[in-house]
Amino acid sequence: MALQDEIARRRTFAVIAHPDAGKTTLTEKLLLFGGAIHVAGAVKSNKIKKGATSDFMEIERQRGISVATAVMGFEYAGCKINILDTPGHEDFAEDTYRTLTAVDSVIIVIDGAKGVEAQTRKLMDVCRMRRTPVIVFINKLDRPSKEPFDLLDEVERELHIRVRPLAFPISNGPTFKGVYNLYEKNLSLFTSDEKQTADASTVEIDDLASPLLAQHVGDKLAEQLRQDVELVEGVYDEFDRDAYLRGELAPVFFGSAVNNFGVRELLECFVRIAPSPRPAPAESRTVEPQETKMSGFVFKIHANMDPNHRDRIAFLKICSGTFERNKNYLHVRSGKQMKFSSPTAFMAEKKSVIDFAYPGDIVGLHDTGNFKIGDTFTEGEALKFTGIPSFAPEQFRYIENADPMKFKQLAKGIDQLMDEGVAQLFTSALNGRKIIGTVGALQFEVIQYRLEHEYNASCRWEPISIYKACWVESDNAEQLADFKRRKHTNMAVDKHGRDVFLADTSYALALAQENFKDIRFAFASEF
Ligand code: G4P
Q: Using the 8-state DSSP alphabet, how is residue 457 labeled?
């Protein structure tokens, strides 16, 4: 198949949601449709159960699962679909944000009873920044839910995106009857024992005035649906695919993932409207997927589960050309040529060595500790892809060596864990002490545990009171120098040597922003 055709049939996306909305369940149903798995329950939930924060075995188990499900590929309707998994626990949100740099679209799952939740909002902010096309799936309609029009308004208002329902529910909770598909103009009737099967019973209804409707859902709900559909068609414009592709309009579906209801409609529409791999912005230019020369970037690094080997898997997103096994590629950061004898692809739970991969595909590369998040591979051009975010951490502790004999092991462990993007390392300008900054508190435990088990090093945490770390830059060198002098006790450098201001309080930060107008305070930096 020509490169062009391989690109056209690829759909690389992530399912994102606030924890418990049904992300894992929906993902599993999509895999069932794709024939990638055959029984429900095959995809393990990758969320860290509440109250398990100090259960290290649980963390290890989760890491094992998240390697297995990092990428799930399957074929459906002639398309090659790659689902990228994202961690459910919000302490690992940064990992999710980075994964979003490797997808071409997303499906957001919302719990119909709870509506838009905190994590949904944050994830949508990242999608909006990147203009990622978004489809919304409102889940759990088998339970008492908010009114559909209220939910649509809430999504529009809270997620700052225009919506267009492509399906509409007939009641919810115990009286839930099904979903009318506005896109295909048919009715899917709900039966609650669809867990194992991939097909819901559908009734073709071209004309909603048809008495057939009332036969299936009763007079009252039939009338309600007619009114609702009339209102939808009156209030919302025709579905505009270009607006969706620009990230301005979100098509909305309703259903119940656990009952496998509304999922087929979602998938059918998804393969039709979701984008194939999009151009990727790099520092010097934009890279088109159709370019014949291979290029790609590492968006995630995962440590091996075996503590005797420090090998890792780097996840490479192919941005252009054809990736080939055993071909030499330039590792841009080091300037070295490298080839890979066993690059892996992921089909649901199976890993297999591949000979070729195309734009949109994710390839697993064996790494002995040389790669970092953001690393680019090309056929010679010094490209650097942009937009892989590293967010300002909000939790800080000093890290101290607890075993003087293991200094080297500790340094190596910290270095490699930082490359994986587990946390960020800052060095205080005041006293040269090392400070670890994370997005969530759980990371401190993960770091300590992994340093012990993978690097045979031990560390101790000491408290430090910092409100936020932000990167500071300015074209006004004099003002920057003045700022650094005055704020000496609060200055640090990150691992790339960039200046970082460690604000004690939100007030101190606001004051600094007020007093030093020429300085940019950045809350996200790039790898
Ligand atoms: P997450 O990955 O977004 O965190 O959510 P997950 O799929 O694990 O789903 C969270 C809970 O919601 C699960 O129940 C799941 O069974 C349930 N769920 C998902 N979709 C639906 C739906 O359409 N209707 C209803 N009523 N429930 C749904 P749990 O009790 O936490 O786990 P489990 O023991 O049932 O697996």
A: -
For atom 9 of ligand 1, which residue has the closest CA? Answer: 22
- pLDDT the model gives residue 435: 96
User: Which residues touch 425 (CB under 8 Å, ≥6 apart)?
Assistant: 414, 418, 434, 435, 436, 437, 494, 495
Helix H or strand E encompassing 127: helix 118-130
Give distance in angstroms: CA of 393 to centre of ligand 1.
Answer: 30
Q: Match 């996306």 to its residue by tokens.
A: 13
DSSP 304-373: -S-TT---EEEEEEEEES-EETT--EEETTTTEEE--S--EEEETTEEEE-SEE-TT-EEEEEESS---T
User: What does pLDDT average to over the chain?
Assistant: 87
Q: How far is CA 148 from CA 16, 171, 228, 249, 394, in A?
A: 20, 9, 9, 17, 36
Q: Looking at ligand 1, which atom is closest to the CA of residue 17?
A: 3
Q: How far apart are the first and last CA of the chain?
A: 35
Q: How far apart are CA 260 and CA 274, in angstroms?
A: 21
Q: Whose CA is nearest to atom 15 of ligand 1?
A: 22
* Model pLDDT, residue 293: 97
Q: What is the pLDDT of residue 304?
A: 64
- Residue nearest atom 16 in ligand 1 by C-alpha distance: 258
Q: What is the mean pLDDT of residues 433-457?
A: 88
Q: How confident is the model at residue 50 (pLDDT cuts 50, 70, 90)?
A: very low
Spatial contact of 177 and 216, defined as CB atoms under 8 Å apart: yes
The Cα angle at residue 368 between residues 362 and 370, in degrees rounded to 5:
80
Query: Which of the residue ranges 145-154, 417-426, 486-495 would you say has the lowest mean pLDDT?
Result: 417-426
Residue 217 has pLDDT above 70, yes or no: yes
DSSP type of residue 193: T
Instruction: Tell me the one-letter amino acid at 25.
Output: T
The C-alpha atoms of residue 151 and residue 154 are separated, in whole angstroms, by: 5
Q: Which two tokens stand for residue 29?
A: 């149903």
Q: Is the pLDDT of residue 196 over 80?
A: no
Q: Is 106 helix (H, G, I), strand (E, B) or coil?
A: strand
Per the CB < 8 A criterion, the answer to whether 355 and 413 are in contact is no
Ligand 1 centre from 263 Cα, in Å? 15
Ligand 1 is surrounded, with C-beta below 6 A, by 17, 19-25, 45, 47, 88, 139-140, 142-143, 256-259
Q: How far is residue 516's CA from residue 508's CA, in Å, rounded to a whole number?
A: 12
pLDDT at 67 > cutoff 80: no
- What's the whole-number mean pLDDT along residues 247-256? 95
> Residue 52 Cα, ligand 1 centroid: separation in angstroms?
18
Q: How far is CA 232 from its chain centroid?
A: 31
**Secondary structure class of 172 (helix, strand, coil):** coil
